[in-house]
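Same chain as my last thread, 768 residues:
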Amino acid sequence: MTLPATCLGFPRIGVARELKKSLERYWSGATTAVDLEIVATDLRRRHWLAMKEAGMDEVPTNDFALYDHVLDAAVMLGVVPSRFRDIEDPTTRYFAMARGYQDPALGVDVRAMEMTKWFDTNYHYIVPEIAADQVFTLDAAKILRDVDEARATGVKPRPVILGPVSFLLLSKAAAESTGAPEPITVLGSVLPLYQQLFAMLAKHGVEWVQLDEPCLVTDLDNRSREAYERAFAGLTKCSPRPLIMLTTYFGSLNENLSLATRSGCDALHVDLVRAPEQLGEALSALPPAMSLSTGLVSGRDIWRTDLDRAHAMCRRAVTVLGTDRVRVATSCSMLHVPVDVEAETKLDVEVKSWLSFAAQKLGEIRALADAATEVVPSGRAFDEARAILSSRRASPRTHDKSVRDRVASVTQSMLTRSAPFAERAAAQHARFGLPQFPTTTIGSFPQTSEIRAARAAWRAHHITDADYETFLKQETARCIAAQETLDLDVLVHGEFERNDMVEHFGERLAGFAFTKNGWVQSYGSRCVKPPIIFGDVMRPRPMTVDWATYAQSLTTRPVKGMLTGPLTILQWSFVRDDQPRSETCVQIALALRDELADLERAGISVIQVDEPAIREGLPLRRKDWAGYLRWAVDAFRLTTSVVMNDTQIHTHMCYSEFGEILGAIIELDADVLSIESSRSNMELLSDFARVGYPNEIGPGVYDIHSPRVPSTDEIFGRLEMASNVLSSKQLWVNPDCGLKTREWSEVNSSLKAMVAAAKRARAQLGAR
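reply #2:
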């Protein structure tokens, strides 16, 4: 007997990034909203058919979003901030909420909503804003449309709905609305809309809904627990309603298990990849009327599933509950993995055999569901998995004795700069002679269509190495000249030779493999191609020294050497699962430590080591924070402590909530920290003031993920806010992130306003 098989969500972007390309054509004005929807409709249909053909008994619907599923939930509930309500066209308004909107001819200039990380992933969601006068209204058109489209495709739909409590816990009080409530307090206004939605879905013939409540795997206070009890009572007792699968992922329910099992929902989904230990407790606590959805195939990594291990858990569940109360699924949505490994025609054959992308994971789910009642599972899928897993474990490519010996030789003294910050700062100020409110950028400059075309031509061997290098040198020289014209104080080389801030380094480190089509959505149309760390990591040769020294030769102003930090390389890669992540991180740190030493010897006096992923990697449970932060901080310090006192170390962080880990950020001991703060309108700075942040800091003064150009007055206002809570002697002036995704026209105008604001700050705020 087989079990029902399903997944919790499918990648949206398309195997060839069809959604990305269609979005960017629409944003550029080259196509219409109708054209965009044609592409989106085709992608949904293709994905549903792929799931059907792989044997999924139900398919998730409403998991597809043009930009972000949390933004979709906000629109569904009418949570549209007042600054967007005058934008009449719904598609324009939707993207304005995500990206901001500026139309000088109409006098429209609205900033985007805040964006932050989705739990401990590299996916960014749009943060809903709850206003003081918030009126909630239900718009279920998108959800019902997807149900009808799926049925027309011949599949059984299961709408995915972000639950009311997680929606509110992931929201914020609107900063522009005086007296805005803490979001969780408005549950009473939101819950009736979910009840209306469930009644509509029931009347529409929907059998099951997937109610996503990922906040159940986090630490909850009493008020949040009470909110869950109230929400579950309201949703499960209303009639009519579909059957409800309460869905949790990214960790263990732990003490919140009783909330889930007493919810009155008809099924509970648990993540048995991240938290296999919770299976026994779930089986013991599950009431007789509740089924169990077992998340046995990872929706977050790309390694083949150990089918025997997963089967053992599945069979354990069937033994306790029976076949009619168990289903097999992915651990979470497969939003976080590429679409199909078969699209990789140039990937190393051995490494490719170890991998499973979304399409292959569907097959693993079906194999587990079909073998659920077998004592010893057999068949091609199991035989193949056993052989490949055995091959991977035995492969000599995964271990390097010299790397492991070096890791073992790391000492505490290697984690500390040779002088405290105050002494280093004095040496650096004497060396550079920078003005107050020094200006810089985060690293990258626009990757134009010409740059992308040249890179593609070079990779296809249509132009020679020498021609490509000449082209890149011209772009670098242009970038240096542009920064000098803008009168920036500390320059960057623009990173035109880099395709991605992680992939670029992985290509130059041993132990990494790369895909051609392994795209994963980071936010909106932004896609990344995470490297695959399959073996021990080492640096065969210098990675960035040539370009840094070339750029420095073009100017007398300091040019930053640009490196991605060890934790971010780790977090934004698909990491080997056969050793602790902390050990892999130390290997990366040692490779980068060698690079810093070489940059300094080559005369590079300012080096930026970006760590935007430090908050992202934080465990969801507070009890696990200390251990993670210890090895994360140590890896950064191992990387950076090799340089002299008058070499200035910068780091950059963005799009995460940092307030709760400021102690660890201080421990990093970077000379200058640049941080995203423009979308939240400098809210984060009060946290830095509260802890007495001792080093120098550059709060991002404008949002680079929006096409709108800020004014000098706007940026000066943010600098004034910053100088009210921090000493002006600490403050740097910079955008909130790299400029890779912007157009040169936007960059020039924005940086011109930024430099003008910095000069005004020197005149008016310098004494603070």
